[in-house]
Amino acid sequence: MEVTLRVFRFNPETDERPRWQEYRVTVEDYATVLDALIEVRESVDETLALRCSCRSHICGSCAMRINRRSGLACKTKVREVADADGVVTVEPMATMRVIKDLVVDLEPFFDKVRAVEPYLQPAGPPPEREYIASHEDMENVKGAQACILCGACVSACTVMEVDGSFLGPTALAKAWRFVADPRDAADEKRLTALSGPGGIWDCTHCFMCVEVCPKGVAPMERILDLRRRAMEAGLTDNNGSRHSQAFVDSISESGWLDETKVAIRSTSGPLELLGWAPVGIRSFVRGKVPLRHYKRPGAEHVKRIFRRLGELDGKGRRGRPGAGAGARAATPSNAPGKAGDAQ
Ligand code: SF4
Ligand code: SF4
Ligand code: FES
Q: N or C: which end of the chain has fewer CB within 10 A?
């Protein structure tokens, strides 16, 4: 089949600005976008820069944006993404500095992974014999271990787009992998660090990392589970967990969200609230501050659900010891947990 690759070209050392370049090549019907790019480099333009190695979705080096969506070029079939005119658009990963064409600077990405100390930290001196983890425990962390550090989730992350200080989905999924590992004894230290600025509370649940991950790691699910664990560990003196709790309290009190109350309760107190005054005034002027919390039809049913959940918690039939409603609400029903935890 014939395909036109519309490729982002940019060499910061010689070009003033990026440009698009089109290449028309003939590839096999089963060809991947990576096959087509390699064909371009070998037969048409040897100056095109791209990264690849295994060509089998194992090494993670060929991540890029294909038709604006982040993913592995070696896992994406041309015929599945070409439009009616046979055009496929290829760009480097977003949220990362371009070194040349499709090659990005991965150093900041790996710095963030290193920052979560991605290695086992057992308690006490090394044991005389190896720690044999149960099959169940290892099954639990297997999903996160599948990460190939391709960076596609970071490229797609809507928070990374605007806030470079966010640790990001790859590093947080990696952190979860060790918090969930029964051989690791540094949970408290890890969760404390992850509860700070740039950590677990900065994710906006946009699901992009879950959607694009080629290995099913589901970083957002790991982040939500880290939040639950942090709250259960008593790490609640931060805006994120206050917001989570305020959200649940608001709905259990009135059956629907009281946005003004939630915003106020998410702060640490009057002093911080004062700092937010300019934002509050701007929101008010633009009509974004609801002045009244009206009764809504059906809200009573929602309140009843919350009451019932509270009763079930009281009987120990659901939930986890020490977990408040906010902790549970911040956790999806299918969130991964430490093996042996009630799910
Ligand atoms: S769910 Fe969170 S971590 Fe994942 S892409 Fe969205 S903001 Fe980023
Ligand atoms: S979590 Fe998925 S998308 Fe993100 S780096 Fe790992 S394998 Fe790639
Ligand atoms: S070339 Fe290794 S993952 Fe694509």
A: C
